[in-house]
Amino acid sequence: AQALNDALDLPVTTAAEYYTAYDALQKAVNYSESASEFASDMDALLAACQGYLDHSTSSEEASASLKAVMDAAKEYESFTTAEAVTDAYDRLADEARTFVAMAAPTEEQGFDVTILYLQNPDVTGMDVFMKLPEIGWSTDMNGGNQQTNNSTNKADDGPSQFIEVYTFGTPQVGWILYQDVTLPLGNYQLTAEAFAEPLTGQASDVCLY
After folding, report:
1. What values do phi and psi take at 48, rounded to 5?
2. In 10 A of CB 102, how many CB atoms?
3. Strand partners, 199
4. Which has fewest Cβ within 10 Å: 104, 140, 151, 209?
């Protein structure tokens, strides 16, 4: 918002000033659009980090280090470039990965590290199936039924962003949807939310393990 205001306040009395103001305004608009996309991701990561702190035991040094990076990231709304926001996000994610590798969860189920290792885990933004690589996903499937973002068929009280994929007649060979990630040594539980279509025509929540 500040970048937009600064651009709008630039004096415009000559052709050179006009082009300077236009360029500044264009950059501010582009940044605002990029920043809005990062905002929800940053807020989600900050919330996850706070959860790690609240539900774990760790050294004072590790906790203080994570808190310091979180405090810096919380100022993202005052940043003036998309690169600065991205850098802050990446730094916080790196610090969080370091923290959970050393901390001990106090909850029986352990840490939820989905946000630290998967890109777009809820497939938000996948308006066309073949755009998977643009948001971090890969697929070996090159035929069959491929649907995304069907908001009329969603899990009960769940997000409308999802994928409906299957082949016709021939079993699927390879992975329908996946991401390659490198995880530190440990025990992990992988879950996926799915929906089923019973005879009632109503979608229901199912978890796949």
Report:
1. -65, -45
2. 11
3. none
4. 209
CB 14 within 8 A of CB 38: no
Alpha-carbon span 70 to 195, nearest angstrom:
35
Each residue of 166-182: pLDDT tens digit?
Answer: 666 666 566 677 888 88
**Do residues 190 and 151 make contact, with C-beta atoms less than 8 angstroms apart?**
no
For the segment 7-41, what is each residue's pLDDT rounded down to a tens digit? 455 555 665 655 566 566 666 555 555 556 667 78
DSSP the chain: -HHHHHHHTS--SSHHHHHHHHHHHHHHHHHHHHHHHHHHHHHHHHHHHHHHHHTEE--HHHHHHHHHHHHHHTTGGG-SSHHHHHHHHHHHHHHHHHHHHH-EESSTT----HHHH-SSTT-TT--SGGGGGGGT-B----SSEEEE--TTS--TTS-S--EEEE-SSSPP-S-SSB------SS-----EEEEE--TTS--EEEEE-
Q: State how far the Cα of 34 lies from the Cα of 136, in Å rounded to an integer.
A: 18
Burial grade of 110 (CB within 10 A; 0-12, 13-18, 19 or more): middle
73-99 pLDDT, tens digit each? 999 888 777 788 889 999 999 999 999
Cα gap 112→192, rounded to integer Å = 13
CA torsion 184→189→190→194, rounded to 10°? -160
pTM: 0.67
